[in-house]
Write a structure and sequence with these properties.
Layout: H1 3-20, H2 27-34, H3 48-73, H4 77-94, H5 96-104, H6 111-135, H7 141-155, H8 166-182
Helix pairs in contact: 1-2, 1-3, 1-5, 3-4, 3-6, 4-6, 4-8, 6-7, 7-8
Length: 183
């Protein structure tokens, strides 16, 4: 399958899962929204669960890869923290459906899918924890992890937040995240 078609199917499935829930969407719904038959999806994905797993794996890989890139290219830990915050805000504001399915559909992943996604998520968290502990040497790893995960909760709440302009939301989230992490 071509990369654009593969991504189209993943994006469409994520949007539908976010709107109607995993069990409220059939392969026929996904296929129809993509302009193909539902059974044609089985040429590209093993199952509807495979679609969910690949969606959540792909977003976790993307978060980790970009987080590492931004952190590694920053001149110092302070700039790295700002880069990580900016990246996560970009992601959260630009991908509300993916945030929603990560939150709501976790239980629908099979054990292997949960293990793979969780491993990627923990690696992403570790990038943040390492950066934060450079700035906050008083935090032990568990405290830093708690601060990072609480900040993710703040940033990932954007699909449910009252909407203000995107630039105002971006500024507000960045200030709040930085304050929460460094408090």
């Amino acid at each position: 399958m071509s990369a654009p078609r593969h991504q189209q199917i993943l994006d469409t499935a994520a949007t539908l899962f976010a709107e109607r829930g995993f069990h409220g969407v059939s392969v026929h719904d996904i296929g129809s929204a993509c302009g193909i038959s539902g059974p044609a999806l089985y040429k590209h994905f093993a199952s509807k669960n495979d679609l969910l797993t690949q969606s959540l794996t792909a977003i976790s890989e993307r978060l980790l890869a970009e987080g590492l890139t931004r952190s590694d290219s920053a001149p110092d830990a302070d700039a790295a923290l700002d880069a990580l915050i900016g990246w996560h805000i970009d992601f959260a504001l630009g991908n509300p459906a993916l945030i929603i399915i990560q939150e709501r559909e976790w239980a629908n992943l099979d054990a292997a899918g949960r293990k793979e996604v969780r491993s990627l998520q923990l690696a992403y968290i570790d990038v943040w924890v390492d950066t934060l502990r450079t700035l906050r040497t008083d935090l032990d790893p568990a405290e830093a992890r708690a601060a990072v995960q609480a900040t993710f909760g703040l940033l990932n709440s954007t699909p449910h937040s009252a909407r203000i302009s995107e630039s105002a939301m971006r500024t507000r989230l960045a200030r709040m995240a930085r304050s929460a992490l460094l408090a």
